[in-house]
Description:
By secondary structure, this protein is of the alpha+beta class.
Amino acid sequence: MIRRVLREPLFQFIVAGLLLYCARIGYETYVGDAHEIVVTAARVDQLARQYALQFGHPPDDASLETLIERDAKDEILYREAKRLGLGSHDEIVRRRLIQKMKFLVQDTSAPPEPVEANLEDWYRTHASDYEVGARATFTHIYFQDERSGQRRAEQAKRAIQAGTSRAPELGDPFPDLYDFSSYDRTQVERVFGKTPLSDAVFEETPGSWSGPWRSAYGWHLLFIESRQPAHVPDYREVRKQVRADYLANESQKANDAALDALEARYTIVREDLGARP
């Protein structure tokens, strides 16, 4: 029963509100009355830590005094701005407060560590999300000339001796690799473009020469040494990613529930805008 109450979004907001209230009380101790700036030891320590994080070393006495004076002057300007209501209709201030509230909701909506059964269920339901695309290991012979490249490639194909699986010397120099090991489609297309050659790498039968095939460079003869089909890895291989995805989803659900609980406290009334152009 207690555990269920602790997980309720409304209870989490109450706790968050109490934390903010306590923080506000601590801040008021720093502020004092409306026209008194009380510089507490805690505030000085905070300023010193911020300085050290920025510059890599603690401030000396003079630097610390400058920080304190600047912070006090900023506090005066902040209070005067609040007194004049300068932020009440400022869209930038409004957006900043909305952002802070969203961060607060996210902080109070952190999901518990999942049990293994939860992760395994997630993996089975979303197995297709973890599919690894096909990969191919292949070599090619390149022919540059646009007009004669196809004819020269066909001649070279007839000249390749049986059992030959690599013969770049029969073609022209290629500006990239001749041999590609375990490349997926994205990597192949990054080299050759979305061309007939790229398609052939994942469609032709391994173990024999094929082509000529066009690419963004010219013409090619292709020899596929091996190809691994697309597959879904075993759960243990992708458990880390499964856990991250599961927690992200649970966090989003908890976040949505917390926002729903907050919105339930309000009634939205829309004015009659009449006919709009």
